[in-house]
Amino acid sequence: MAIKKKQKKEKIDKSLGGKRISAARQGIDTTKSYDLKTAIKMVKERATAKFDETVDISFNLGIDVKQTDQSVRGVITMPNGVGKKVVVAVFARDKKAEEAKKAGADLVGDADLVEEIKKGNINFDRCIATPDMMALVGSVAKILGPKGLMPNPKLGTVTQDVAKAVKDVKSGQVEYKADKGGIIHAGVGKAAFGEKQLEENIKALVNALNQAKPSGIKGIYLKKVTLSSTMGPGVKLDVSSLVAA
Questions:
Q1: Does domain 88-170 have CATH number 3.40.50.2300?
Q2: For labeling, which of 131, 163, 224, 234 is most exposed (least CB within 10 Å)?
Q3: Boundaries of CATH 3.30.190.20 in the chain?
Q4: Tens digit of pLDDT at every position of the chain (245 positions)
Q5: Alpha carbon 19 to chain centroid distance?
Q6: Global pTM exceeds 0.70
Q7: CATH of 31-82+173-243, one of 3.40.190.10, 1.20.1250.20, 3.30.190.20, 3.30.2130.10
């Protein structure tokens, strides 16, 4: 009886979820691209889940990912944060370890932190290290690398100023990187954010991507941009309105 009740509940939940998605898609013309302000409003109105959904943006870039000089990667501190608690791990010793702790790092260590990672205990979202720790961090590079957690000096996560790095990450720093398909995905805030807050964050990210544009790009750089919430449908953005931002 318990199994049948569970199956019935799952069927009802699935049905309700399908109805919610169908309702959310109403009013969206999939053949049309919307200006930024309109798209933000549409996404917020359709974020009706029982939790505060993340607002995500995806960029299809006109880059050749096979060319090493056309990689697009960097970090940006969002003007209004992203509304997410970020768990930060820091590889540091002695004075630098104390600085990291005071700055708000959640996990601080050296060899002990490496052992936890080897055991599969990776309970953090970002990883920072002082330069002298990189030889040690290298022993778990094959674990951290595929997860996008390997400290990188180009991203400011290999530094002597661990306090600043921790504060930057905690204040809403977002890392962006084009995947194998030349697409960048990033969270730009929460559905509960005001429209202006989301607009400012998106404009800041677009500006960062434009500044990171590889010099070898000859065609269209920002080919397609889509905005959505965690559980909501995607809304295509008018790229020209973003370029003007």
A1: no
A2: 131
A3: 31-82+173-243
A4: 455 555 554 454 444 455 555 555 666 877 899 999 999 999 999 998 889 999 999 999 999 888 888 989 898 989 998 888 889 999 999 999 999 999 999 999 999 999 999 999 999 999 999 999 999 999 999 999 999 899 999 889 999 999 999 999 988 888 899 998 999 999 999 999 999 999 999 999 999 999 999 988 888 999 999 999 999 999 999 998 887 55
A5: 28
A6: yes
A7: 3.30.190.20
Please report where in the chains the tokens 């509960």 appear, as a residue: 192
Question: CA gyration radius for the chain?
Answer: 21
